[in-house]
Amino acid sequence: MTIDTLTTNDLTTQERRGLAAISTPDGHMLIVAADQRNSMKAVMQDAPNGTSAITTVELAEAKADLVRHLANHGPAILLDPEVALPAIPDQGILARDTALVVGLDASGFETVNGLKYTNYVPGMNPRRVRELGGDVAKMLWYTRPDKQGLDDRVADEIRSLTAECAAEGILLIVELLTYKLEGESDEDYAALFPTLVADGARLAVACGAKILKLQYPGSSAGADLVTDAAAGVPWAVLSAGVDHETFIVQVRDAMAHGAAGAMAGRSLWKDALSVDPTKRRELLTTRALPRLRELRAAVDGE
C-alpha cells in the first residue's frame, strides 16, 4: 500500500504532503525514531564505557549525532520536544530534505483502573509542532481494546487530537501499543496479541486516525487482520526494541500483507550509541546506516 491508495479517513492536501515527506520516493513510510528519552539514556548507560548517569546534555549530543550520521540519509526523523528540539533544526543539523516528525507524548504513563494512559509533553499541541519546524506530529496511546471502547479516554483523545491537527494542517501519526494486564498470563496475552493489535487499529480508525504506527502482530495472518481492521488507513510497523535482523523479517512480512512502511528506533541504533562521540560517529556510519539502507530496501520491496 502506497500513499496513493488511501480509501478511508481521507487526508487533506496538506496531510498528503506530510505523508509524502516521510515516505521513500516509492511511496512507503520510513522514519528513524529518536524521540526516546529514558530508554535512550539506558542504552547509552549499557554501552561500553557508559556511565551510570547520562546527562541531558550528553543525550542531546547523541541525538544530534544520530541525526547527522543516520537520519539525514533517510526520509524522516522522529524527535522529542524536551531534549532534541528546537536545537537540532536551529543549529542546522537536520538536512533540508529530511522531514521532521515531532513526538507529543511525555515519557512514561499513568495507570487508572489497571489501564495505561500517556500524557502530553507540557505545552505541546499542533501549533507548537509547527513552531518547532515539524512536518508531521506523532502521539502514543496505550490500548487494550478488549477493555476500552469508543467512550474511553483514549478514544476521546484520538478524536480530539486528530481534529486539532487537521485544523492546523498537520498530519498526525497515531502510535498504539498494547500490553499485558496485571495478573494476565504470558500465554493468554500471546494468544490475544494479534487481535489486540488489530482491534486497536480498528478503534483508532473509528476515531478518525489517518496514519497508524503499530506493533508487528506476530505473523502474516496477524498482519492480514491489521490491514483489514485499518480499512484503507496506512499503517507502519514499529521495531519495539527487537534486533535489526528480526525487524527486517517482520517488515518484509508486514509489507507483503498490507503495511505501508516502517518506523525504526533501537533496531537501528541501540548498539551504536557509544558515549564517546568519535566511536559513536563510527558506529552510526558503519553499523546503523547500512541497516537503514537495508530497511529502505525492505519497505520498497527490493
Tags for this model:
eight-stranded parallel beta barrel, 11 helices, 10 strands, TIM Barrel, alpha/beta, 43% helix
Protein model, in words:
This protein has 302 residues and is α/β, with parallel strands linked by helices. It has one domain (13-299): Alpha-Beta Barrel (TIM Barrel), CATH 3.20.20.70. The protein is 43% helix and 16% strand. The chain has eleven helices and ten strands. It has helices at residues 13-21, 38-46, 56-69, 87-90, 126-131, 153-168, 186-206, 220-230, 244-256, 266-269, 277-299; strands at 29-33, 76-79, 99-103, 110-112, 115-117, 136-143, 171-178, 211-214, 235-238, 261-264. The protein has an eight-stranded parallel beta barrel, surrounded by five helices. Strands 4-5 form a two-stranded antiparallel ribbon. α4 (87-90) links the parallel β2 and β3 (99-103). Residues 1-8 have low confidence and may be disordered.
- Quick one: biggest sheet? 8 strands, parallel, barrel
CATH architecture designation:
Alpha-Beta Barrel
CATH class equals Alpha Beta
Radius of gyration over all CA atoms, rounded: 18 Å
First CA to last CA: what distance? Answer: 15 Å
Number of strands: 10
